[in-house]
């Protein structure tokens, strides 16, 4: 896929390789962007590359296809919803994740 920017470049990960939630979190201002509307967020950033693992990069839109919530009150709520969506869609590769999360 032709990405709007290099997922490992300065715009995608601040010069280093970052994955999943870390890349998504950089797209929001924790103080000023919440409550956050899911559809507006995806409209703005949907084509941006999100590195899932050392081989896999997907558009942000693909991750948010499985996010059930339409808005988020804060960044914690957003991260929880994104984590559930990533697990449901098979994009969660962290070993031991089940020990630290509850799928709702």
Automatic annotation (TrEMBL):
Q: What is this protein identified as?
A: DUF5785 family protein
Q: Which species does this protein come from?
A: Halohasta litorea
Annotated segments matching region Disordered: 1-20
Could you tell me which InterPro entries the record lists for this protein?
DUF5785
Top-level taxon in the UniProt lineage: Archaea
